[in-house]
Every structure is written in C-alpha cells, then in structure tokens.
Amino acid sequence: MDKVEAALPDTDPMLIAWKAWQKAEDYDNARRWAETFIIESNGHKLGAMSAKHPHLEGSMWAAFVAGWSSLCGMEPDKTR
Question: Which one of 4, 42, 46, 61 is most buried, counting C-beta atoms within 10 A?
Fold first, then answer.
C-alpha cells in the first residue's frame, strides 16, 4: 500500500526542529553511523567502510519522526 503525504509547511514545529537538527553535530554523527558498515569476522572488527545509501535521508527522517512522536506521546503515523 502506497501512502503519499503532503509536504509540511515551513512554519511547522516538526520541520523547524528537523532543519535545526540537520545543522547539528549530532546529526552528522548519526548520519556517519547510518552509512558506515562495520566488517567483522568471528567477533573481531576487521574494518569499516562507508556507503552512500539512496534512501539514507528518508531513513534519517523516519528516525527523527519516531523520536518526535515518542516525545509527543503519539504513534509515528499520527503526528499530524
């Protein structure tokens, strides 16, 4: 089932918080972890590599919405 949602207006508190978070060091750190793959073998870290995922920004948005919803005490799909 496809679900299409309208864009939030620039004055929406959730969008304002999202844009502010995108400028924060925490966002950069979370994004780095989201795009880094740890390579392990038998419990030993062999290295790490970064990969650009085509849906990374959407995943970051989904994580943000889940946190926002939790803070507001709502289900993620009922924030509006």
Answer: 61
Q: Look at residue 12 and tell me if it is in a domain.
A: no
Task: Tell me if 58 is assigned to some domain.
Answer: yes
| pLDDT (tens digit per residue) in 12-56 | 898 999 999 999 999 998 888 888 877 777 877 777 777 777 788
Single-letter code of the amino acid located at 77: D
Tokens read off for 3: 């679900």
Q: How many residues does the chain have?
A: 80
Interatomic CA distance for residues 24 and 26, integer angstroms: 5
pTM: 0.65
Q: Give the integer Cα–Cα distance in Å for 42 and 54.
A: 30
- Give a yes or no: residue 39 inside a domain: yes
Rg (CA), the chain: 16
Return the DSSP state at 47.
E
